[in-house]
Each structure stands twice: as structure tokens, then as C-alpha cells.
Amino acid sequence: MALTRLAHFSIRTTDLERTCAFYERILGFRRGYRPPFDFPGAWLYMGDDERDYGTVHIIGVDPDNPQGLSAYLGDKALPASGTGTLDHIAFLATGVRQMWATLRAEGIAWRDRTVPSLGLHQVFIEDPSGVTIELNYPAAEVEGLELPKAAQA
């Protein structure tokens, strides 16, 4: 049996709405269908297709009522922030100038890197839970440009 592709990634958070708003406003995801689990959460989709069960699953951690989440996914300590042993999550993207403008307008810090041998320009940001997101743009989008100063969060 062979793996065919990554289905989704999940993020546990104590601030469901702030985390969803980040993925919606900054990265362009939209909320879609999510089964009626016994714990809060949201499934976020790229584009209009809901056949793939969402790309990002936001899992709401309710410290006052953890039973539903524990019963479904098991007890797991929530780190203060970050990704634990997972370093980052990466997406392919286009429109780096528009992303820079969005990040600046939202006051979100970022780091730029170009990998010439791969033809990629990378923008690194962090979501409200401290999860690092890598956005990979065609390096041609930044050729000849002076990179903007990143916003300071």
C-alpha cells in the first residue's frame, strides 16, 4: 500500500477564532464543512473544492471541557507555542508582492530567503499558535527587486 499525498494538518489552539482568522485573512483559506465532533474546531479549505476534507484542521482546546477532544484524539499536552518536533509547514504560492502588502497591513513579521538553485523565494511567518508557515514563490517574482523590510510584530 502506497501513500498518495498529504491529506491535511491539524493545529491545536486555545484561541480558535484568532487562529481561524489568521488562516482566512492572511493565507486565503475559507471555512467549510466539518463533522459535528464533540469539541470545538474548524476545517479550512483552499479554493472551492470540499472533496478533500480541508487542508487545515483547527482543533479548539477547551480547558473547561476537554472530554470530547480527549475521547476522540487522546490526551495530549498543548505546548505553550510552536510546532513541537515538527519544524514548519510549507505551501507553494504566487503573488509575493501582494503577500508582503498583506503582512505589512496586518503587522505580521516575516523573513525572506531565496534559494536560487531551486528557483524559490521563501517567506516565513508564524500563526497565532507559533506554527511556522513557509510560503514558496517562484524566484522570478523577486528578481531585480530590493526586498522590503519585514514588518515587526
Q: Nutshell version of this structure?
A:
The chain is built from 3 helices and 8 strands; from the N terminus they run E-H-E-E-E-H-E-H-E-E-E. The chain has 153 residues and is an alpha/beta fold.
Whole-number radius of gyration?
17 Å
The percent range for helix content is 10-25%
CATH architecture descriptor of the largest domain:
2-Layer Sandwich
Classification by helices and strands: alpha/beta
The CATH topology of the largest domain, please? Signal recognition particle alu RNA binding heterodimer, srp9/1
Shape: globular
What's the order of the H and E elements? Answer: EHEEEHEHEEE
Contiguous helical run count: 3
Oligomer: single chain
Q: Largest beta sheet: what is the strand line-up?
A: 1-4-3-2
Beta content: 25-35%
- How many beta-strand elements? 8
What would CATH call the class of the largest domain? Alpha Beta
First-last Cα distance = 45 Å
Biggest β-sheet: count, sense, barrel?
A: 4 strands, mixed
Nearest-integer average pLDDT? 85
Q: How many domain regions? A: 2
- Enumerate the spans where pLDDT stays under 50 for 5 or more consecutive residues: none
Written account of the structure:
The protein is of the alpha/beta class and about 150 residues long. The chain folds into 2 domains: about 10-75, Signal recognition particle alu RNA binding heterodimer, srp9/1 (2-Layer Sandwich), CATH 3.30.720; about 90-140, 2,3-Dihydroxybiphenyl 1,2-Dioxygenase, domain 1 (Roll), CATH 3.10.180. Helices cover about 20% and strands about 25% of the residues. The protein is built from 3 helices and 8 strands. It has helices at about 15-25, 65-75, 95-105, and strands spanning about 10-15, 30, 40-45, 55-60, 90, 110-115, 120-125, 130-140. The strands form 2 sheets. A 4-stranded mixed β-sheet has the order 1-4-3-2, with helices on one face. Strands 5-8-7-6 form a 4-stranded mixed β-sheet, with no helix packed on it. The model has no long low-confidence stretch (mean pLDDT about 85).
